[in-house]
Amino acid sequence: MQGVKDRRVLMKLPKWLALTLLPLALAACVDVRAQPGVVATSVSKPESKPASRPVAVANQPAARGQVEGASIYELRRAPSQVVQSSQAEAAATFNGWRRAQGLAPLTRSAQLQRAAQAHSDDMARMNKMSHVGSDGSRVGARARAAGYDYRHVSENVAMTPLGIDSAMELWAKSSSHRAAMLRTDVREFGLAQNGRYWTLVMGVRK
């Protein structure tokens, strides 16, 4: 019933204001370990009308061998254009967040950067956020294709037009994404943007 009430409220907004609002946060986390057969993924599908809820969080319980997954929706005023963040700015923001949590910064990996950029580019082409690439690939396969022989690799993705600060805020608000960024056993990362689409890949080599 709350969703119905929210829709009525949104319908009362002036048309010009309603058109400037959009759901801009979709975040999902996947955790893959190198052992064969142990692939942890739990992604919540966007609701049919996520804009009906200014803020909504959907969590799925973790199955055996899986980590918790979540999708977050937020309603904010749409910017006139997508905020572009440089790779250096994005990396500094991510490592600054880790330092603020009392953790050591991670080293930028050229291989993980390629994997992250390739997936952000792919999501932009598909015009949707997903851990599954247009070719059916997942983060483990993409990391290996980029030349990263991992013991552990994890991936956060987000969709937001507001730049790296917004992507980090969304991930930090979700327990599964936050946990992935707080891991102490990862050493390297890649963080890439293509328009609204963000991909963060963290890992440790064999």
From TrEMBL:
Q: SUPFAM superfamilies in the record, alphabetically?
A: PR-1-like
Alphabetical UniProt keywords: Signal
Residues in SCP domain copies: 93-192
Q: Which residues form the signal peptide?
A: 1-27
What Pfam families does UniProt report for this protein, alphabetically? CAP
Concerning PANTHER family, the annotation shows:
SCP DOMAIN-CONTAINING PROTEIN
This protein is called what?
SCP domain-containing protein
The scientific name of the source species is Alloyangia pacifica
